[in-house]
Amino acid sequence: MLNHFFPRTVVLYTDNHQRTPPLPHLLEYTPKGLYCPAADVYIDPHRTVPRAILTHAHSDHARRGHKYYLAHRSSEHLLRLRLGKGINLETVGYNEPVVMNGVRISLHPAGHVVGSAQIRVEHGGEVWVVSGDYKLEPDGVTQPFEPVRCHTFITESTFGLPIYQWPAQAEVFEEINAWWRHNQAAGKVSLMLGYSLGKAQRLLQNVDHGIGKVYVHDTIWNVNEAIRQGGTPLPAAIRVDRHVAKGGCIGGLLIAPMSVIRSDWVNKICPYVSGAASGWMALRRMQRSRSTDYGFVLSDHADWPGLNAAVEATGAQRVIVTHGYQSAFARHLNEQGYDAHEADRFFQTGLLRDTPVGEEREWED
Ligand SMILES: [Zn+2]
Ligand SMILES: [Zn+2]
């Protein structure tokens, strides 16, 4: 079986019985990040490299300083906004293969945020897919997730525990709209906090604009402009900068990054009620913590059923679990008959634990 072409434990012997090191996998983990030796390219590297393929524009995946970038076309202006206008960036559409040293590489929709991609790597008849971050439910903004058949699937596991099961998006937005109406009737601003790339656009796209005016914080305004320039349409909203007049947004919905809750700026928009949209709210609701007034369960990552469905749809025999609940999800997959591994152990490195994990850090700009 293809998956077992290069088992790590096999030691090849030459005629004179000298040991030859095991052949590298199609993808390996190095101190700079996930690496394809055959193509000489890294995927989402966290240190400076000559050639990088980026799955998406979140800051824990897209870092400054690489000499060459390959990413999806829709994320071009987002990447230039975050990494600098002058970066050496080549863009492709989904399913438009690029050949690097004879290795066929293509990007496929991950459904996570605008321009997010799974990376398919094919060489000598062997196919690996790196999921990057992904979710299965269409969000109305991002091109929906498409499963890609492969022999080895490297999957994230940010919410890889059975306790994480998302309500349907339509249900969550009914809840958000009702909350907004309620605050409006009370003469308050509905301050909705979410990541500036992903959650902000999903909120803007799916709230009921018939209720009142929708405002966006300056940071989100800039992200929205970069997304529109990349060819993804978004509903209009009113820009709010640091000179906002006190009471100016009353009755409206103001979408802002999480960080504003700790800034002086937030005092200018009183009276407000705050809400936050995140997958972590599923837990927070149980814990009744109160850093914001309301929590809405809305995530750009797959929940437990989503992760399982995605793995099954790839047809992969071997699954490598990274970014999140590695051991719990890998154990579960093994019980289901997969050849599943925690990325740390599979690549025989403790390095993965040092890389930023999951959603929590992505709202930082
Ligand atoms: Zn992400
Ligand atoms: Zn991530």
Automatic annotation (TrEMBL):
Taxonomic superkingdom: Bacteria
Record bears the keyword Hydrolase: yes
Keywords annotated in UniProt: Exonuclease, Hydrolase, Nuclease
Molecular-function annotations in GO: exonuclease activity; RNA endonuclease activity
Keyword set includes Nuclease: yes
Entry protein name: mRNA 3-end processing exonuclease
The organism of origin for this protein: uncultured Cytophagales bacterium
